[in-house]
Amino acid sequence: MVEWTEEERAFIQEIFSKLKYEVVGPKSLCRALIVYPWTQRYFAHFGNLYNEDAIMGNPEVARHGVVVLHGLDAALKNMDNIKSNYAELSELHSEKLHVDPDNFKLMADCITVVIATQMRSSFTPAMQAAWYKFLSVVVSALSRQYH
Amino acid sequence: MSLTAKDKATGKAFFNKVSPMAEQIGEEVLSRTLTVYPQTKTYFSHWKDLTAGSAQVRKHGLTVLQGVLRAVELIDNLKEGLLNLSELHAFILRVDPANFKIISHNILVVLAMLFPDDFTPEVHVAVDKFLSQVNLVLSEKYR
């Protein structure tokens, strides 16, 4: 089980309280698709991902970015049992979506970068540490059901 | 994943813009590296103060950032241009190359934090590719 200090829990709560899903979600997924273009392999059905402008203007990308970000809610609601809460999502990504789990880390990094642009200097090193730990636990939980 | 002419131009323009803030960027990058990835502190056991923002962190953060800025100037010939730094990291510092990725990530986070409007996805990918090339060159002589 992951141990969280009171300070870490407070940091995570603070980040989520300031998080605008409809802004950070789309921006994060756009970044992943642009900065790590091989991730586009999972989104051939989204239509035009031909260049940066197409990706950033694509409504399906924007919509899905929000979906992905809300995927973090389960971890926020129950930080003491993230592993079991993600069993279903993990199986989905493995068995149905066939996503290489290395991509989870790329997505996590893009979410972090976008949050940094939004929170700026209030995203302190200590807060970043808590956030990195939180995302690492989620990424690990999502990777668990792969076989 | 080599650098295109566009990557180089984008990277150069962006780093020229941000270079006046090298000291602050360097301090933030190293502070975050030591705080978020505590295993990196093992390379600095000879320092008195490893807390974010300490004098030693500020000084060394700037050293690291200046290395990056020098690499930008040598972007057309990183391998030869950074030969001294390659040898330094390989034979003297012997920093595990996994840590180069950590510093690169924190450079991206700090740039995003300090330049949220300029650090567009286009700039992000150019800088990420550039830093990956620098990391490759730095680990060139390891074995």
If you had to describe this structure to a student in words, what would you say it looks like?
The complex is a heterodimer of chains A (147) and B (143). With 147 residues, chain A is an all-alpha fold. In chain A, 69% of the residues lie in helices and 0% in strands. Chain A has helices at 6-18, 21-35, 52-57, 59-70, 73-77, 82-85, 87-96, 102-119, 125-143. In chain A, helix 1 (6-18) crosses helix 9, helix 2 crosses helix 4 and helix 8 runs antiparallel to helix 9 (125-143). In chain A, 35% of the residues are buried. The model of chain A has no long low-confidence stretch (mean pLDDT 96). Chain B has 143 residues and is mainly α. Chain B is 69% helix and 0% strand. Chain B is globular and about 45 Å long. The two termini of chain B are 22 Å apart. The model of chain B has no long low-confidence stretch (mean pLDDT 95). The chains are: A mainly alpha (147), B mainly alpha (143). Chains A and B meet through helix 2, helix 3, helix 8 and helix 9 of A and helix 2, helix 6 and helix 7 of B.
Question: Helix content range of the residues of chain B, please?
Answer: 55-70%
Low-confidence stretches of chain A: none
Distance between the termini of chain B: 22 Å
Largest sheet of chain A: none
Write the H/E string of chain A, N to C. Answer: HHHHHHHHH
Task: Report the helical percentage of chain A.
Answer: 55-70%
Measured by residues with Cβ under 8 Å of the partner chain's Cβ, the largest interface is:
A-B, 23 and 21 residues
Instruction: Give the class of chain B from helix and strand content and strand pairing.
Output: mainly alpha
Distance between the termini of chain A: 22 Å
Please count the helical segments of chain B: 7
Q: Rg of chain A to the nearest angstrom?
A: 15 Å
How does the overall form of chain A come out from the CA principal axes? globular
What is the string of helix and strand elements of chain B?
HHHHHHH
Basic shape of chain B: globular
Q: Indicate the proportion of strand residues of chain A.
A: under 5%
Strand content of chain B: under 5%
Secondary structural class of chain A: mainly alpha
Mean pLDDT of chain B: 95
Q: What quaternary form is this? A: heterodimer
